[in-house]
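Hi D.,

Good news: the full-assembly prediction came through. Inputs first.
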Amino acid sequence: MKQSVTMTVNGVQHTGDVEPRLLLAHFLREELGLTGTTIGCDTSQCGACTVMMDGQAVKSCTVLAVQADSSSITTIEGLAQNGNLHAVQQGFWEKHGLQCGFCTPGMIMTAVDLLNRNPHPTEAEIRHGLEGNLCRCTGYQNIVAAVQHAAEMGK
Amino acid sequence: MTTKVIGASIKRKEDPRLITGEAKYLDDLQLPGMLHAAILRSPYAHAKIKAIRTDKAAKHPGVVAVFTGQDFMEVNPLPIAWQAGGVKNNANAPRVLEVNKVTFTGAGVAVVVANDRYTAEDALGLVEVDWEPLPVVVDAKKATEAGAPQIHDNAPGNICMDWQCGDKEATDAALAKSDVVVKQHLTNQRLIPTAMEPRGCIAMYNPAAEEYTVWMTSQAPHVMRLLMTAFVFGIPETKMRVISPQVGGGFGSKIFLYPEYCLVTALSKRLNRPVKWAETRRENYVATTHGRDHVTDIEVGATKDGKITALKVNTYANLGGILSTIAPGIPTTLYGRLLSGVYKIPHIYCNVKGTYTNTGMVDAYRGAGRPEATYVVERAVDLVAGELKMDPAEVRRKNFIPPNEFPYAPADNILAGLKYDSGNYEPALDKALEMAGYANFRKEQAEARKQGRYLGLGLSSYLEICGVAPSAWIGLPSQGWGAGLWESANVRVHLTGKVVVTTGSQSHGQGLETTFAQIVADELGVPVDDVLVQHSDTQGTPFGYGTYGSRSLAVGGVAIYNSLQRVKQKAVKLAAHMLEAAEEDLVYEGGKIYVKGSPDKAKTIQEVAGAAALAYSLPRGMEPFLDDTAYYDPPNCTYPFGTHICIVEVDKDTGQTSILRYIAVDDVGNMINPMIVDGQLHGGIVQGVGQALWEGAHYDDNGQLVTGSLMDYALPRADFFPMIEMGRTVTPSPTNPLGVKGVAEAGTIGAAPAVVNAVVDALAPFGVKHLDMPLTPERVWRAMKG
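Then the structure:
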């Protein structure tokens, strides 16, 4: 039996009838066409699907769409404001923090959350903060540099 | 003013779409009326299929159709495009769905097609299969022993091929005369490539034109079209268009033709609707190719002063239950032919038995044969150093091929007629030792040991052979590759002066859209932003072999460079006409063509391109437009090298290894974009370290993949590492006009032995001489406990 959900995604209110088992990641991708949120695993290990839910980073493959009812979601598509990239997006571009780009949306959302909580993290804090997001291309080195760059810009 | 763009670390052109979520990967694509496929996979590693009943699943609401292998008997088995050269290959290829029996857990046996993916997955549980389980073998060597289950009728003893290179007699004789001979049994464990984007495919059939359009996660779309049309479906190549959309990493695993791609293509015609299959990570782990999985015995001989005299290698290479597209070529040509490494070894012999086991397919994974060879060589050098109680750096130095001996042909013709084009190994070693503070390290290590702390330093002086490959070499009967390996490029300078380049290479993370644009910008003197690099669509790009084997710059990039030279020649000819000057008096520099000595008498490349496109006034016989297509077949491979140093500390209570420092000095020849080069090396190194310390695909005795998800397979994470310290030397390759080599696999090739040598060094006080990867805390702890 389908249930009605309403949520604000990237500032726009959406309502939909969904199966209770539908994952938030699938709701965003299939129902709203926001495919920037990618899915890289089925065990909540990779973090590619990370989005902001009411200001906190969540793995959207681990949240049911019905659990996100009445919440405010920000996906990678909603991060840049008025055509200006977010500092973390800038950092990833400047510091070559991505290669294939598949983990990048989740990695960026996690980094945004990390810097919200800790605007001036040490390298160790950045590495620990990114531990729930997997990247197979970069060896994480330039991702760390990208987050450091974003933190510098935020000073 | 000239704009020197080659060698500049400019930001990537592809990034804006990737950092904003606007890039479209395979699973992001939706077509009107599209159906979704889910595949029923074998829960057994070795079993006969007695019967499959699909009626319940077919009646499930939302299900459109259910098929088994019996429904696709007109579709041919997949081709094996690279069989081991010069020997009999008992080849066995997959079908779109297996029909009579399965030979590994995860083989597809039925497919449900439904209106959405959730429904398709639901209905999989309603398909009933009567299985007759058979005995299982998972180990490459045990599969050849008496009494092992026989997997394929045509492969007695489960041997797919028995291949060799080098000179057995001379190697045995040299070993017999050596002052010392060290023997070692070692394994190079199975790995799972784990590109962050799993695989997928969408196919659409147009019945009026009898044409297919197929989107797939492929590193080689032209090759996929060739294999699917010519071999699997038996239709003209012109009846299919293959497109790779944005591809999220490959590391080799997306080179190959997979059963699912052919299945989805067949389904699109059968159902006359577009069909999508998007792989889950669990499927990716069982049904996408794995890498490595060698069991090896080595014998290395040396004089008492540390000169290596001979190397003998016997390897069992696990090829899985059925062959992937180029599986037999990896542990043969790409492995045995590298066993001289960076050393002047007088005699070498290598025997490889490729075997079938009840495990998933094994094929190229980052490095593909070359990391396995480098691991053998670099462990062998350390074993010799240990036996002779010599400094491993000195043993390396003593055995390096001297710079004045290039081009160098490794002993006993193991490289099948090719020669290393260039190399200068000692400066890279010296630089790495200096960065590491080697002279002081041994003192620190001795001090630490007194305090009960176990530090270790490991060296790896690796060689890579990449930029594959001269077609006339790779196509030799002794190599067995079933095609050419040149690459293509087309360069067009449009009326507006904007440049469109199409390439047969396929960028899936390498940044080729930027690197290739830099070559164009530098040669033509146009802004990088004026260059568009197009790839990955068989409609609109010239045939090309795709991206793997670190070949895209050294082969594909050189094709672009060659095309640009001809574009420039034509531009100069036309400028001479426009300026009423003699061609030989003109200079092309910084985007302008001017008369030598009178720089004001000039035409910009944009003006010339405009004139060529308008064609109002062209020299007699000149065709309109600046447009050129090049096919570049390299005369040789390229030979990057370097020295990596890893410094570790092993916790004596837990066996945990911590990486204290990682130093990488790499020589990849000339660089187009050093930022991208370093990024490739970082990622490669971390994959190599991953193999050394954590990663390993493990099958239990029943052939179940117990590391079947990202919860169980230990992929490196951000907090496992310090910052890698990068250094480099630059020895340009004389093989191509750009002087470039290749970089994508070098890090992976160099890293694993550096880490293992470091841990073995740390454990020297415990009498440890060798440990097999991955060096998990348990394995290290047990070694310390004796």
